[in-house]
Amino acid sequence: MSLTPALYIGHGAPLLLDDPVWSSQLSDWGKRLDRPKAILIVSAHWESAPLSLGTTTTGTPLIYDFGGFDPKFYNLQYPAPGAPELAARIKALINQPVTDQPNRGLDHGAYVPLLKMFPDADIPVLQMSIPTFDPERLFKIGQQLAPLREEGVMIIGSGFLTHGLPFLRDFSIDATPPGWSLEFDIWAKEVLSRGAVDELMDYKAKAPGMPYAHPTVEHFAPIFITLGSASRSDDPPETAIDGYWMGLSKRSFQVA
Q1: What is the number of domains present in the chain?
Q2: Which of 15, 94, 179, 254 could be a cystine partner for 5, CB 3.0 to 4.6 Å?
Q3: How far is CA 134 from CA 93, 202, 243, 253, in A?
Q4: Contact 180, 239 (CB under 8 A)
């Protein structure tokens, strides 16, 4: 039986939608993927413990969790079907308390990439919170969720491989990457190529470019849920997107 792939994606700000390069990369990636039955997405922009599930109702408004952008970005819509069956399945799989937040719509870490990858908004989507930043605990959550991939569910961790916004000096899309962003990206690429998840988990101590690459870690944390759901954690993932955006690493991949 073929497994639905699990993804780790960089999602960027809403301005991503106006960037022809990154938009086309996400769109092309989505076209290469088989259509999943449902999508479970974990975004850097929802930290909540205990582990929480967002709305399972079709038509819940999006969360416009950003400021200072063109008014058009506050009119974005992504009316994906709700996924109550997926929510129930997760509660059966996860060996920890799970709570519901039925009024919480998708945040931009979820709908910005989905607008490009699955623009028809016709696949049921459920968002799950990040309940901890501990890599080992997140990896175990990914392992518990792994059976969903046999059922046609695509698991997506949505973050940004480097996210040192306070240390950027050039905010143009084609800015030269700072040294800390380059160093962290190259290190992560090499570690992932060896399937050395244990080394990746120790990124705070071992990765060059820290803490500048991640002064806060919410954009890196979803990577461990994705890797935990892999069929073999030591297999290197398949890179789908690389390069830089405002100097930050866009590196995104899928695991088998």
Answers
A1: 1
A2: 254
A3: 20, 10, 27, 21
A4: no
In a domain, 1, yes or no: no
CATH number of the domain where residue 75 is located = 3.40.830.10
The span from the first CA to the last CA of the chain, in angstroms, equals: 12
Which position has the token pair 């954009």? Answer: 219
Residue whose tokens read 């991640």: 214
Averaged pLDDT, groups of 10, the chain, 256 residues long: 92 93 98 98 98 94 93 96 97 95 96 98 98 98 98 98 97 96 98 97 98 98 98 92 98 97
Judge whether 113 lies within some domain. yes
Query: Does any domain span residue 162?
Result: yes
Chain-centre distance of CA 191, in angstroms? 19
pTM passes above 0.85: yes
Nearest CA to 233 out of 192, 202, 205 is that of 192
14: Cβ contacts below 8 Å, ≥ 6 apart? 66, 69, 73, 76, 108, 112
Range 179-182, long-range pairs (CB < 8 A, 24+ positions) = 179/209, 180/208, 180/209, 180/210, 180/212, 180/213, 181/209, 181/212, 181/213, 181/244, 181/247, 181/248, 181/249, 182/209
Separation in Å, CA 176 to CA 106, 160, 249: 32, 17, 11
Residues belonging to the chain: 256
Q: Could you list the residue range(s) of the whole structural domain that residue 177 is in? A: 6-255
Are 195 and 236 spatial neighbours (Cβ–Cβ below 8 Å)?
yes
Please state, in angstroms and rounded to a whole number, the distance separating the CA atoms of residues 242 and 25.
9
